[in-house]
């Protein structure tokens, strides 16, 4: 399914088999290639071509879903028969299932021919360049470099037909020399925006400072979070607090705080496919157009994001955040989390901090308490003291147990600069943040 | 299919120092029920071929769902191109530990094929169980089942031809008591989707879901009204389900040799169990014996051969507290001059084998549960995982559990909510001074162990029985 015409052919194949039934289909596929390196050599190097077709059949308000990666007509037909059989024995839904009507879409995924045609040798050459530079300083490099081209088709028997094609470049790297480490990452649709020299410089600059780490005691600190760290925190908040299904079930922080001004005026968080720095999908996996949804606006808690099933069940509006049928029981996730920029440069933020900690990155974050969005996790790859407005000594890694709500309430500086980082669905666009309430609970030995 | 694979292998043979091809076909059935109503019923079939080649001393791997002759040849050629690109940065040629040629077939022994049990019967069981849990403040209940049948063919240039059919069954139920600004969850038989095994539908029948649904709903209601767990240093007993996760995170991952060698450092992290510590490090108390055993019947990490064609085996990781072994693939085992212990596993046809857990089992001790608890004056009994986190060398960990019970003068007392405990891995395992007997031992299936880039979710398991740990830092999430 490389183009819209082959997408149409696939839909017609399904239509011909399912003449008397309502249906929804999702076809997703493409080619993904990943070069992985460690100890300064390429140790894993892979490519995958695949196409998955999911067909959901709606028969007298009963649903059966089949998924396959063989789209021969006879196989599709056999699988569809299986799904029809399922609808004959399954109980009816406790709400009326409705199919989406045809929609129009305002945006497209970003696509780069150069990304799509980037070869294993091209990736290996860039990795080799980085390795040579960091080796000169005594560091080893490890990381992953992905280039991919993907297609997505969503259609239904009411006439919805949505086809999209996109590309992605995803690079991450850690360099190490004994306990001195640093991390850098890059995500974009266009390989032409990828600058290996810039990444190399960034890695070495952090790593050369991240040496002879000292121990500090756990406690509540003022911290400056890098965009990488902010993105991780924000994605967990999006996952646990802004899932409309959890809100409807009374299991989210949003339940008791909707409409309340909880945070400073400067805190605005949205699911925004129109943000210039993100990589949008034009539609969700039911075919709803993606929209900008305010989650927190000027410090006020607004609402979450809703999938098709939750919207039908609780009489809400679907916000264009439906997931695949396999993940549908989870509810919805923000696809393109964004946080509004502030007025400060990162240098001003550091200069204005008498005593604090700079956090480059987190490791193994998890949710402790969904209602307060209390998270736990570790720092890694560069945590530094800030003293009298200057970045100072590197510190050993620390465990944090901190509430995102308390943390955001105490944000007093936000950078003008925002960066695009990996997200749970699509990328996350976030600035640096300074908060005066961040709790470290214990330390580790490195 | 075997002939197709052999044809490609013949084409590759003169061009490579080693190649293996894997055809994998998986049938899956998944059922989700919420509050007595079916929320989703999905069936899927997935198949494809992964081709791994070693040429110019470096690896290349390409995979495709397109199985026609031309496409397979194209995929094989792609794997060669990729290997040549990998060679650009190589330091030395990749070498593999010796493995005998195997021509064999393996089928999971099951009593009741889950795909021959009617969907209606399965749905009905979940509908009943989830309805039974809707009591008092339990406003949300959920239940799910998943069944897998995976057929694999492995062929290699070393002459191995291995066919395996693996059946897996699993599921569970959960009750959510929801109050003003708080909710509490109780799961059965384990958290995060229940328990899984390489067994047939008999595994589901033995879970006795209906007999336990009411009890966990009651516990969820009690938790909602319960005080938070106390903070301080105390003795704890970990129940089997939570201990399985403890073994997983603080032993299973750090003994993966690829992590130790730095191959996962940029993503999942490294390990504190560095090469100098092998046979030279006290990991835990003399009570602690941990094995990797892919042969134990029914374990979710049980199979005939790993995805490098190495037979399933049992090996010691920790013996009477001493660290004695790693989990190894053929490539990593060669670096230690050892044979692979059969831990090279791939999630599917489109992923390469990585060093993965199999069944990582803490062997049982000889205490009755009453004796384990009876020797604690003041402490906590903690079970069923709620949250988990551990640093990138697997040293500093923190876990939360669904339920905590007070232990006072050797007896179980009141319920606490939101309990967490924290520790440093070797210190924690050295504080273990009692493990309950085989009577309480169970192999817990974990179907979602994540690792690698691109990500791979592996099916692994952990045999545990409740165990006692002294002077552990505990507290409550807020």
Defining key terms:
heterodimer, A: 446 residues, alpha+beta, PmbA/TldD fold, 9-stranded mixed beta sheet, 6-stranded antiparallel beta sheet, B: alpha+beta, 2 domains
Write the topology of this structure:
The complex is a heterodimer of chains A (446) and B (478).
Chain A: H1 4-17, E1 22-38, E2 41-59, E3 62-68, H2 73-89, H3 113-116, H4 120-136, E4 140-156, E5 161-177, E6 180-188, H5 196-209, E7 219-225, H6 227-241, H7 244-248, E8 269-271, E9 293-297, E10 300-301, H8 308-314, E11 337-339, H9 346-351, E12 355-359, E13 362-369, E14 374-379, E15 383-387, E16 390-394, E17 398-403, H10 404-409, E18 411-421, E19 428-443
Parallel strand pairs in A: 7-12
Antiparallel strand pairs in A: 1-2, 1-4, 2-3, 4-5, 5-6, 7-19, 8-9, 8-11, 9-10, 12-15, 13-14, 14-17, 15-16, 17-19, 18-19
Chain B: H1 2-12, E1 18-34, E2 37-55, E3 58-64, H2 69-86, E4 103-107, H3 119-132, E5 138-156, E6 161-179, E7 182-188, E8 195-197, H4 202-206, H5 209-225, E9 232-238, H6 240-252, H7 257-260, E10 290-293, E11 314-319, E12 322-323, H8 330-335, E13 344-345, E14 354-355, E15 360-362, H9 369-374, E16 378-390, E17 396-408, E18 411-416, E19 419-424, H10 425-430, E20 432-435, E21 442-451, E22 456-464, E23 467-476
Helix pairs in contact in B: 1-2, 3-5
């Amino acid at each position: 399914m490389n183009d819209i015409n082959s997408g149409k052919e696939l839909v017609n194949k399904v239509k011909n088999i399912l003449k008397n039934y309502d249906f929804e289909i999702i076809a997703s596929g493409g080619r993904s290639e990943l070069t992985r390196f460690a100890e300064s050599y390429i140790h894993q190097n892979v490519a995958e071509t695949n196409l998955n077709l999911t067909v959901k059949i709606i028969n007298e308000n009963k649903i059966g879903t089949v998924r396959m990666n063989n789209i021969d007509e006879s196989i599709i037909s056999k699988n569809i028969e299986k799904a029809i059989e399922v609808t004959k024995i399954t109980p009816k839904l406790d709400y009326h299932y409705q199919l989406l009507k045809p929609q129009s879409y305002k945006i497209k995924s970003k696509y780069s021919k150069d990304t799509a045609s980037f070869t294993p040798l091209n990736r290996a050459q860039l990795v080799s360049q980085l390795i040579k530079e960091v080796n000169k300083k005594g560091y080893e490099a490890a990381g992953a470099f992905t280039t991919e081209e993907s297609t997505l088709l969503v259609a239904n028997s009411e006439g919805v037909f949505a086809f999209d094609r996109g590309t992605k470049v995803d690079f991450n790297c850690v360099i190490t020399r004994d306990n001195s480490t640093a991390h850098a990452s890059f995500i974009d649709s266009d390989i032409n925006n990828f600058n290996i020299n810039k990444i190399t410089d960034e890695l070495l600059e952090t790593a050369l400072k991240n040496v002879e780490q000292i121990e500090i005691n756990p406690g509540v600190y003022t911290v400056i979070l890098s965009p990488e760290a902010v993105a991780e925190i924000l994605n967990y908040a999006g996952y646990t607090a802004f899932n409309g299904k959890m809100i409807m079930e009374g299991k989210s922080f949003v339940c008791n705080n909707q409409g309340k001004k909880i945070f400073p005026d400067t805190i605005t968080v949205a699911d925004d496919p129109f943000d210039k720095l993100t990589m949008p999908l034009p539609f969700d996996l039911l075919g709803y157009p993606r929209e900008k949804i305010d989650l927190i606006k000027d410090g006020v808690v607004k609402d979450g994001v809703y999938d098709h099933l939750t919207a039908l069940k609780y009489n809400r509006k679907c916000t264009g955040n439906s997931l695949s049928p396999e993940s549908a029981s989870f509810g919805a996730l923000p696809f393109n989390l964004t946080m509004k920029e502030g007025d400060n440069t990162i240098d001003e933020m550091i200069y204005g901090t008498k005593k604090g900690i700079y956090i480059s990155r987190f490791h193994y974050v998890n949710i402790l308490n969904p209602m307060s969005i209390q998270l736990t996790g570790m720092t890694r790859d560069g945590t530094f003291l800030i003293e009298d407005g200057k970045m100072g000594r590197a510190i050993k890694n620390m465990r944090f147990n901190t509430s995102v709500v308390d943390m955001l309430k105490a944000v007093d500086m936000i950078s003008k600069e925002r960066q695009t980082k990996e997200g749970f669905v699509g990328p996350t666009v976030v600035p640096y943040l300074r908060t005066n309430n961040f709790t470290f609970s214990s330390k580790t030995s490195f | 299919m075997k002939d197709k694979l052999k044809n490609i292998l013949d084409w590759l043979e003169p061009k490579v120092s080693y190649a293996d091809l894997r055809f994998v076909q998986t049938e899956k059935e998944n059922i989700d029920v919420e509050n007595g109503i079916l929320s989703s019923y999905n069936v899927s079939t997935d198949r494809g071929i992964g081709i791994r080649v070693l040429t110019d001393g470096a690896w290349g791997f390409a995979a495709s769902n397109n199985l026609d002759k031309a496409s397979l040849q194209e995929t094989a050629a792609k794997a060669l191109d990729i290997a040549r690109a990998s060679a650009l940065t190589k330091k030395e040629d990749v070498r593999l530990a010796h493995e005998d040629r195997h021509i064999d077939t393996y089928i999971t022994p099951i009593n009741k094929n889950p795909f021959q049990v009617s969907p209606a019967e399965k749905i009905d069981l979940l509908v009943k169980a989830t309805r039974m849990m809707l009591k008092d403040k339990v406003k949300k209940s959920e239940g799910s089942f998943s069944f897998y049948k995976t057929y694999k063919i492995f062929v290699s240039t070393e002459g191995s031809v291995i066919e395996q059919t693996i059946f897996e069954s699993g599921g569970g139920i959960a009750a959510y008591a929801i109050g003003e600004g708080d909710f509490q969850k109780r799961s059965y038989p384990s958290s995060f989707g229940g328990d899984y095994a390489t067994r047939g539908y008999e595994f589901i029948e033995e879970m006795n879901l209906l007999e336990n649904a009411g009890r966990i709903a009651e516990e969820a209601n009690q938790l909602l009204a319960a005080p938070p767990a106390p903070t301080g240093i105390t003795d704890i007993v970990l129940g089997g389900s939570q201990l399985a996760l403890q073994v997983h995170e603080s032993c299973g991952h750090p003994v993966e040799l690829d992590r130790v060698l730095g191959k996962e450092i940029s993503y999942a992290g490294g390990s504190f169990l560095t090469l100098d510590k092998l046979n030279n490090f006290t990991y835990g108390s003399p009570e602690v014996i941990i094995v990797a055993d892919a042969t134990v019947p029914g374990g979710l990490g049980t199979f005939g051969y790993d995805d490098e064609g190495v037979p399933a085996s049992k090996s010691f990781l920790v013996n009477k507290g001493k660290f004695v072994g790693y989990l190894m693939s053929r490539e990593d085992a060669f670096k230690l001059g050892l044979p692979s212990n059969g831990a090279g596993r791939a999630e599917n046809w489109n992923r390469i084998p990585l060093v993965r857990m199999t069944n990582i089992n803490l062997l049982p001790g000889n205490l009755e549960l009453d004796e384990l608890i009876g020797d604690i004056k003041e402490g906590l009994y903690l079970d069923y995982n709620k949250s988990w986190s551990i640093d990138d060398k697997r040293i500093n960990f923190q876990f939360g559990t669904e339920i905590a019970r007070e232990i006072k003068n050797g007896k179980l007392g009141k319920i606490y909510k939101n309990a967490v405990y924290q520790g440093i891995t070797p210190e924690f395992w050295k504080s273990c001074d009692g493990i309950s007997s085989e009577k309480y031992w169970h192999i817990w299936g974990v179907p979602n162990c994540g690792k690698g880039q691109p990500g791979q979710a592996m099916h692994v398991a952990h045999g545990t029985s409740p165990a006692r740990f002294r002077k552990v830092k505990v507290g409550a999430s807020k």
